[in-house]
């Protein structure tokens, strides 16, 4: 890999980490960057998943206090996320190409709309307190995160804000932590069986680690409603992009 490409991927990685924590749309920055330096789509996908582990590491390192005191619940959620990440990696390696792409834009669009109308929904129906929704949602979102992941954070934030009493801040931290676990498990599988471009993964991960570290303080100073609406609108744009 040329030195300039390596440097550009480090820069792209930083914005990937920052955008990933703030909006949940890391792959919309990192995946095109990998394609731009010449990686074929499948190699870019698996390399991206390996590098995205750094976003979760950076964000968790700078916001770990939010995770303390959750005890067995956090452990259960982490295990479910790992299972989902493993299933997502297997799906990418063995499923027909394009197996998820047809439904992904609709999932991202639905999650974005849910974010935009979340206060209205919560005001009229209250917290959607079905105990099975969050565990099932974590598994399914982690499957998608391990498979590709663009917009997985938006879907996760929408689920947590509608189905739990978590604040936008705590939901953002949980999203980065749990999707980081899904990416880690998928990355192990890709490292063994997928065409990972290790220099590209290293460059992207270096930047993503720094960007993930900077994400929590950025989110803390953004008004929650402004952040929620911005993520929702950006998610609708992402859905349109993915549907092309």
Would you mind describing this structure in some detail?
Helices cover 80% and strands 0% of the residues. It has 244 residues and is mainly alpha-helical. It contains eleven helices and no strands.
The assigned structural class equals: mainly alpha
Spans where pLDDT lies below 50 across 5 or more residues: none
> Rg, please?
17 Å
Quick one: biggest sheet? none
What does the average pLDDT come to? 83
**Approximate helicity band:** over 70%
Q: How do you describe this structure in short?
A:
The protein has 244 residues and is mainly α. 80% of the residues lie in helices and 0% in strands.
Helix/strand layout:
Elements: H1 3-23, H2 27-36, H3 41-61, H4 71-94, H5 104-116, H6 118-125, H7 133-147, H8 152-163, H9 168-193, H10 198-221, H11 224-243
From the structure above, extract its key features.
globular; single chain; mainly alpha; 80% helix; 244 residues
């Amino acid at each position: 890999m040329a030195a300039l490409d390596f440097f550009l991927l480090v820069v792209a990685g930083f914005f990937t980490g920052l955008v990933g924590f703030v909006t949940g749309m890391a792959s919309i920055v990192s995946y095109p960057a990998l394609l731009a330096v010449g990686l074929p789509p499948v190699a870019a996908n698996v390399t991206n998943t390996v590098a995205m582990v750094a976003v979760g590491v950076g964000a968790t390192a700078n916001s770990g206090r939010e995770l303390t005191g959750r005890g067995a619940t956090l452990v259960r959620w982490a295990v479910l996320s790992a299972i989902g990440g493993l299933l997502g990696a297997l799906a990418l390696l063995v499923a027909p190409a394009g197996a998820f792409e047809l439904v992904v834009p609709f999932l991202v669009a639905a999650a974005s709309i849910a974010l935009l109308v979340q206060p209205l929904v919560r005001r009229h129906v209250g917290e959607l307190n079905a105990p099975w929704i969050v565990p099932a949602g974590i598994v399914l979102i982690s499957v998608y995160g391990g498979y590709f992941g663009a917009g997985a954070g938006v879907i996760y934030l929408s689920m947590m804000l509608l189905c739990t009493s978590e604040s936008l801040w705590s939901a953002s931290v949980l999203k980065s932590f749990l999707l980081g676990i899904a990416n880690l498990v998928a990355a192990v599988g890709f490292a063994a069986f997928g065409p990972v471009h290790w220099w590209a993964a290293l460059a992207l991960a270096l930047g993503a680690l720094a960007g993930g570290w900077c994400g929590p303080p950025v989110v803390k100073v953004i008004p929650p409603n402004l952040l929620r609406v911005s993520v929702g609108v950006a998610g609708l744009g992402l859905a349109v992009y993915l549907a092309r």
